[in-house]
Amino acid sequence: MRKIILDLAVSLDGFIEGPNGEIDWCIMDDDMGFDNFLSEIDTIFYGRVSYDLWGQFHPDSTATLIERQIWDEVHSKKKYVFSRNPQTNNEATYISTDIASQVREIKSQAGKNIWLYGGANLITTFLDLGLIDVYRLGVHPVILGTGKPIFSNIPKRVNLTLKEVKSFKSGVTLLSYEHSEK
After folding, report:
1. Which of 66, 97, 130, 170 could form a disulfide with 27 if both were Cys (CB 3.0 to 4.6 A apart)?
2. Whole domain around residue 113: which residue ranges?
3. In-domain check, residue 93
4. Is residue 126 in a domain?
5. Is residue 131 assigned to a domain?
6. Domains contained in the chain, number
7. What is the arrangement of strands in the sheet containing 78-82, beginning at the earlier edge strand?
8. CA-wise closest residue to 115 among 87, 134, 139
């Protein structure tokens, strides 16, 4: 069965964005294998705000070839947007009700793994519903001090088991966790 993988960059102090939504601290090393991750998924789950910001983003002409290739690969995936106010869009399917059963139905279909892109509210919803299979966090060597936390308002403890650790030349450490039965 397909897995839902939360894959995010996070600061050392647990933020996914700076206080004004900045992500300029995120590092993309060529040795991080993000293209490998993209080849293992065929679907992306977005919250509406994240989709509006990044789900339709296209780099400008000053972007590197690698950056343009990454965005082309991202845009080749099937996209679902979770929103209280669904819209009609030829590039994405909107889901506004019965999230758990609809996600389980998508997950049961043939295909590759699914990237839970975020945002923070969608991550909290998926965490509360027990829908995340893998937590893949790229911890970046920066302390932001304030911003949008990766996890907030989590009503119950979630025990995880560390499955893999990788370090990169930039100082980013990739941590992969799965649920544990504690």
Report:
1. 170
2. 4-149
3. yes
4. yes
5. yes
6. 1
7. 93-95, 78-82, 41-47, 113-118, 4-11, 134-140, 173-179, 160-167
8. 134
